[in-house]
Amino acid sequence: MDKVVKIKNDVYWVGVLDPDLEYFDIVWRTPWGTSYNSYLVKGSEKIALIETVKEPFYDEYIDKIKSLVDLKDIDYIIMDHTEPDHSGALPRLLKEATNAEVIGSRTAITFLKGQINRDFNSRVVKDGDFIDLGGKTLRFIMAPFLHWPDTMFTYLVEEKILFTCDAFGCHYTPKHLFNDLEDDFSDAYKLYFDSIVSPFKPKVLEAIEKIRNLPIDVIAVGHGPVLRKDIEKYVETYKKWSTYDTNTKKKVLIYYVSAYGNTRKMAEEISNGIKDSGVIDVDIYNAKAVNLDDARDKIEKADGLLFGSPTITGDAVEPIWDVIDRINPIKNKNKPAAVFGSYGWSGEAIPLMEERLKGLKLNLVEPGLKINFIPSDDDLEKCRDFGRIFASSLV
Q: Once rounded to an integer, what is the mean pLDDT over residues 160-172?
């Protein structure tokens, strides 16, 4: 799509496509590429631009806008979110759109000052504020932490269009822009939620509650297809993914690595101690044999985490570090955790794992347990007690 696309009456998509993007923010896979969606809204008196695009696409972006309006006629630039894939073109744009006022949440304007590094005309808006363009009213809905603290939605009242920046979008390169004209992009929708949005599930539910009673014909997202069909399905899917099931038994995961079976024996007896509670399920995994993406997802859903490793050359071993590296500190903050392992003469694996888990904001509910060489019967009973104590932190 190298041309402007009309969304509704006097509302236009002026974004750009990035089909060759392989990773977003360095770490997130984007196998379908992405789009950077920006929208122009023309009222009878004023013109507003909603979001910009990533800076390298500036020339293509500006050509689209100029096909509709003179840049000096833009009155407002609405910044629902200020991550550089949304705001990258803004510094250059402001040099040409000299009459534009930048609109955003207080946090958004603060962030933009750190990006633009010069004075610019701006206005802070709050929940319920609105701007009249002349026959088109933009109302602002604060939605912080979806997925940055600056985020807000913009609702175009007369056309029933909700502009949601990163919420309800996906990294996917649309061929025809609208969801009802695209091939199945459900995998991209789920991957985007898991990668970008899922650390902020409570904020998703808060935002959905705010828009619950709005009549919505179109959700104009920041990335991927614009949603104009089955809108309720996409919103309800977000709600489902963001709602925790509180009716199931608590789940504890134990990840271990064992060179000679000693740490494995500890893991098994710790598991037995946890199961003694009668109300907690335990899954044990050899860290050498797990799929790390699956481990990340399981860790997020777990109620408690334990990690076991022997000490080899003064450290915990690589497979356990690989699993620990999948812990997202936002999703798993304050989650109960503990460490254990066998050792020969030093035992550094225990304090090193504890230090890393503390850095990831997990709650270490008891000091790490280390057993010298092969665990005796008394040692195994210590392991079982270790599991019982851990279970008590969850019930």
A: 97
pLDDT band at 246 (very low <50, low <70, confident <90, very high): low
Q: CB within 8 A of 370, min separation 6: which ones?
A: 340, 341, 342, 343, 347, 349, 350
Strands 76-78 and 101-104: parallel
Q: What is the mean pLDDT of the chain?
A: 96
Confidence band for 247, pLDDT divided at 50, 70 and 90 = low
**How much is the pLDDT for 120?**
97
Q: What is the DSSP string of 77-117?
A: EE-S--SHHHHTTHHHHHHH-TT-EEEE-HHHHHHHHHHH-
List the domains of the chain with CATH numbers.
5-242 (3.60.15.10), 250-392 (3.40.50.360)
**Dist CA 126 CA 22 (whole Å):** 36
| Distance (Å, whole) CA 158 – CA 13 | 17
Largest alpha-carbon pair distance within the chain?
83
The enclosing H or E element of 304 equals strand 304-308
Token duo for residue 297: 């997802």
